[in-house]
Specification:
This protein is mainly beta. Helix content is 9%, strand content 39%. 47% of the residues are buried.
């Protein structure tokens, strides 16, 4: 186990050659983000994080109800060394900088921790992409160039940064779901389906422009559509290891064809993902898992994770048998011989993954709740052995919530995770994935009704 002093020595003594290599790689980046290099894509956070890297903490203010996160988002940046130091105190809500967003902002940060990317979620500036230079504390300097994607992907777009050297982000949306014989169509025509218009948009993060976008309908099978099934939402885009396909999660919905009303209880289909060519965004194809029936769109964080073994691992939610971890292979199809059931592995009922992150060597961590409980728990998963266990040494409090959690920071084999009960002070925790040990880092000062939603 590495203690805090070990971390300080390790990060202070990073050799010059590694820094020069990092600078050389940055200088060699191509500014146009629409093209993908020939080299395979690999997860970004595979290096140890340097001590002087900024760690940005995000906290969500309450709106009308404690924990709703609708009062806006504050961010505050500290050095990595301070973040893992238990003597440090961080007051995000009093000292931090507000992020432009009507509700909880959907933030992304560059691989080196020096640049913040944001697409405003809802409100009068919803869909506006902006970029900030992170300079520590509440000092986030916005670049004077922005682009608004709302006319293509709506004012509340779902989006994720790709694992391709901070070059591109993908925003997705489904709009205008209607029956083929609705008022917008031909009322005399026999009912055949409900469909919406899906948009997949490629955003150049470096040049601050829209590289490309495509729109299409996403038809299900004839039988599924006649029963009223439809893809209601897209989210959690990820680039495969070859760099030539995007895998995008779906959220399914079912309408009653006779009444046009949504149904709350229905026989779910197998979990489905959308696969499109990259960078052309063409040839949309739906793939289906036989191992689970939950949605794979996530909520505020990306539930599709590219691992170092080349598989994309995916967490499901709203599954009738609790959340599962599925995987998609290099053929861009579900591996229907593989599934990790968290209900089975943990001996629980109705587990629900709020967010999760792959770390390294087959180990990932999931933030879950289960059954009727709202309390959040951290689960260590061995994806190779298909086992899982609740991590000990973390706050065990009924007011711990992870439902709006957005981002984890990975440093080598370690996961950096802010945790506090709702409205109470908490800490940053360092989870050592290969030993299952936990180290306590900086203290996080909280306010009534507020909660922390990520480390970037």
């Amino acid at each position: 186990m590495l203690n805090i002093n070990t971390y300080r020595i390790m990060f202070k003594n990073f050799n010059l050659s590694k820094r020069l290599l990092s600078l050389g790689m940055a200088a060699a980046m191509v500014s146009m983000g629409a093209c993908v290099q020939d080299d395979d894509v690999t997860p970004e956070e595979e290096e140890e994080v340097e001590a002087d890297r900024w760690v940005t903490l995000a906290g969500a203010f309450m709106g009308e109800t404690a924990g709703d996160g609708n009062g806006g988002t504050n961010i505050y940046a500290v050095s990595f060394e301070d973040a893992i130091n238990p003597e440090t105190e961080i007051d995000v809500f009093n000292d931090g900088e507000p992020v432009k967003s009507n509700r909880t902002a959907r933030l992304q940060v560059s691989q080196d921790g020096g640049t913040l990317f944001n697409i405003a979620y809802g409100g009068e500036n919803g869909g506006e992409y902006s970029k900030f230079d992170i300079r520590g504390g509440a000092n986030f300097v916005q670049e004077d160039v922005t682009v608004n994607i709302s006319q293509y992907a709506g004012t509340s777009p779902r989006w994720s940064k790709l694992y391709n050297g901070d070059k591109n982000g993908i925003a997705v949306n489904v709009a205008n779901i209607a029956a083929n014989n609705s008022e917008d169509g031909n009322p005399e025509e026999e009912f055949k389906y409900y469909r919406g218009t899906a948009t997949v948009l490629d955003l150049d993060l470096q040049e601050t422009l829209i590289s490309d976008y495509k729109t299409y309908e996403l038809p299900l099978t004839e039988e599924e559509e006649l029963a009223g099934h439809v893809i209601f939402r897209l989210d959690a885009p990820v680039l495969n290891q070859a760099g030539d396909k995007l895998v995008i999660g779906t959220w399914m919905r079912k309408y009653n064809p006779a009444t046009g009303l949504t149904e709350s209880e229905w026989d779910r289909l197998g979990t489905k993902s959308l696969v499109v060519d990259y960078p052309s965004l063409e040839n949309p194809t739906l793939i289906t898992s036989t191992q689970a029936n939950g949605d794979c769109s996530g909520y505020r964080s990306n539930v599709n994770q590219l691992a170092d073994d080349g598989y994309i691992y995916q967490a499901t939610t709203r599954d009738t048998n609790g959340s599962h971890i599925l995987r998609i292979g290099s053929d861009n199809q579900y591996d229907n011989t593989y599934a990790l059931s968290l209900d089975d592995a943990l001996g629980l009922t109705d587990t629900y993954v709020d967010a999760w992150k792959y770390v390294s060597n087959g180990i990932g961590y999931a933030l879950i709740r289960h059954g009727e409980e709202d309390q959040g728990y951290v689960v260590r998963m061995d994806l190779n052995q298909k086992t899982a266990s609740i991590v000990q040494g973390l706050p065990d409090d009924p007011d711990v919530r992870f439902n709006q959690f957005q981002s984890f920071l990975v440093s080598g084999n370690d996961l950096i995770l802010p945790i506090s009960p709702l409205g109470q002070d908490g800490n940053i925790y360092i989870l050592h994935s290969q030993t299952n040990e936990v180290t306590k880092g900086a203290k996080l000062i909280n306010q009534p009704g507020n909660h922390f939603i990520g480390a970037f």
